[in-house]
Amino acid sequence: MSAGTISGQVALIEDDYTLVINRGAESGVTPGMVFAVYSDTGPVITDPESGRELGRLAREKLRVRIFDVQPLFARAHTFVDTGDFYGLLRLPFTAPPREDIVTVDVGDAVDLVGAEGRVQRPGHTG
After folding, report:
1. Domain of 31?
2. pTM of the predicted model, to two decimals?
3. If you average pLDDT over every residue of the chain, what do you get?
4. 118 lies in some domain
5. For residue 110, with 0-12 CB atoms within 10 Å meaning exposed, 13-18 middle and 19 or more buried, which class applies?
6. CATH no. for residue 43?
């Protein structure tokens, strides 16, 4: 599969830094791939002409890197791409504790991140 075409969901939260997605080797997932985790609880978009709900904006919560791939699922670690020594080596790195805690839920959407570090998610409205 080409970059940007693998989408799925969070299937299990293992611990504070590890989650499982519902896509694996059979879907083209390989170790080292980076996925963005989304929440579809963003603001509702309403058509000003008809008043019809058009969808919701998806909000990126965090990114995870795949480290273990099975046929139907893959395990991933959260990480911070610092752009320094750790970022160059692409090692998982835990950020220092912050006041804004990110909560990931089973069922949150995940999308493969493109090669340039931007998410390939055209026209997603949840």
Report:
1. 7-112
2. 0.69
3. 78
4. no
5. buried
6. 2.40.10.410
